[in-house]
Amino acid sequence: MRTTDRGRGDPMTLDAPGDGGARYWLLGFNPAAKLIAALVLAVGLVPAVDAVTGGVVLAAVLPLVLFSGADRRTLLVLGVPFLFMGLSSGLVNLLYGEAGPLGALGAAVRLLAIALPGILAAVSSDPTETADSLVQRLRIPERPAMGVLAALRLIPLLAGQWRTITLARRARGLEAGHNPVAMTALFFGRLFALLVRSIRTGTLLATAMDARAFGTGPRSHARTSRWRPADTLLVAACPVLLAAAYAVSAGLGTLTLLFG
Q1: Is the domain of 157 the same as that of 194?
Q2: Following DSSP, what letter does each residue of the chain receive, concatenated?
Q3: What residue ranges are annotated as transmembrane (predicted)?
Q4: Do 33 and 148 fall within a single domain?
Q5: Which residue among 11, 27, 81, 213 is buried most deeply as judged by most CB within 10 Å?
């Protein structure tokens, strides 16, 4: 995710109207704060299996999609699997679960409420800033932090390699036409080729990191990961939101606990 200067300002202050500042509001928070907030919400929603508790959290988090800075194409690419995940979870619980339609709805809403904060944290965070915050703020060792950065940076590269493999095979006349069997075989062939290339790329990256002595001792940092009061407020707001969700569910008499 590419960030802009307007998205790196103080998240408590929005840019002038018409400058797009409100759209990039989430980008101003520290990535570590967003990851902690997503983790708190995910862990807090694990015990509740009813639809109301997860629904309150989902209703509170869903509007933040508009302020994530993601463009329409990114939202579409992420939104379709996200909705499919919720619908499939509800359908499976409806067909094979014992709680009936309400239990299936609760499972779907709970899954969406757990996944959405993590997706927003990933979409609205620059990979480099995320790695810096993991090392400086969360005290994550540099090797796994740099591994996360490398993985995020390699996603566009893998997409380009997939297109290259597809075009190369098409140039050699390997086309499936309208045959679904041949289409499936060619797909898994391209997938295997991409796996081989990704392993080779990962090996080169690991060698380069070892040559630069990552993880062998303290290192200096070119960028400082800043933690602002707004980041503290973001993390503190998550337990408040969870408490409100549980209170609403308990007040309506719909609260159902996983281990109850």
Answers
A1: yes
A2: ----GGGGS-TTS---TTTTTGGGGGGGS-HHHHHHHHHHHHHHHSSB-SHHHHHHHHHHHGGGGGGS---HHHHHHHHHHHHHHHHHHHHHHHHH-SSHHHHHHHHHHHHHHHHHHHHHHHHTS-HHHHHHHHHHTS---HHHHHHHHHHHHHHHHHHHHHHHHHHHHHHTT---TT-HHHHHHHHHHHHHHHHHHHHHHHHHHHHHHHHTTTTSS----SS-----HHHHHHHHHHHHHHHHHHHHHHHHT---BTT-
A3: 35-67, 74-96, 102-123, 233-259
A4: no
A5: 27
What are 158-161's contacts with CB under 8 Å, separation 24+?
A: 158/194, 158/198, 161/194, 161/197, 161/198
Q: What is the average pLDDT score of the chain?
A: 82
- The residues pairing with 257 across neighbouring beta strands, listed in sequence order, are 48
Looking at the 3D structure of the chain, how many domains does it have? Answer: 2
Predicted confidence (pLDDT) per residue in 192-232, tens digit: 888 888 888 878 877 877 777 766 666 777 788 899 999 99
Same domain, 150 and 76: no
Distance (Å, whole) CA 30 – CA 228: 8
135-173 pLDDT, tens digit per residue, is 888 888 877 777 777 777 777 777 788 888 888 888 887
Strand partners, 48: 257
Whole-model pTM: value is 0.75
Residue 78 · residue 88 · CB < 8 Å: no
- For residues 254 and 244, give the distance between their C-alpha atoms in angstroms, rounded to a whole number: 14
Residue 172 to residue 181: CA distance in whole angstroms: 19
Residues 13 and 111 in one domain: yes
